[in-house]
Amino acid sequence: MADTTPVPSPTPAPSQATPAGGFKPQITIDDFAKIDLRVAKVLAAEPHPSADKLLKLQLDDGSGTPRQICAGIREFVKPEDMVGRLIVIVANLAPRMLRGEESRGMLLAASHGPRDPAPGQTRILAVLSPGSEIPPGSVVT
After folding, report:
1. How far is residue 77 from each of residues 2, 55, 57, 117, 131, measured CA to CA in Å?
2. Of 3, 95, 118, 125, which sits 20 to 30 A from 34 (CA to CA)?
3. DSSP string of 22-39, one letter each residue
């Protein structure tokens, strides 16, 4: 009788290929539950005065107190295109100073391509937004 055990392919199929940089270590559901993902509305956006890649965003996060975050999306998005937009943020990230500006959270975005593309290479970025209107402060689960 012939052996019908499949022989693994030496390279993964394109749909199964590991993305650039690989995957991060596995976490538990308890680790994930610590992350507070919220919807926020961009009230104002401007280039960061001391960083070429950052935008400074003023947000309504539903708390009643404006929140500022700095996001490395400047080369992909015009500040005026962010105003009024609903985005998803990590709301419980510890505040951090980024080139003299406080950032109190992190905007979520998906990207594809090398972080610093060489000539002829490209990187695309998509800011994550809810698929429909929902109030700022809504919990993302």
Report:
1. 58, 9, 12, 17, 19
2. 125
3. -PPPP--HHHHHT--EEE
DSSP state of 139: B
Domains of the chain: 33-127 (2.40.50.140)
**Dihedral sign computed on CA atoms, order 112, 82, 105, 96:** positive
Structure tokens at 1: 């009788």
Per-residue pLDDT band for 30 (boundaries 50, 70, 90) equals: very high
Q: Which of 97, 56, 50 is nearest to 73 (CA)?
A: 56
Query: What is the residue whose two structure tokens read 């003299």?
Result: 100
DSSP 94-127: PPEEETTEEE-SEE-EEEES-SSPPTT---EEEE
pLDDT at position 21, please? 63
Q: Can you give the pTM of this predicted structure?
A: 0.80
> Would you say how long the chain is, in residues?
141
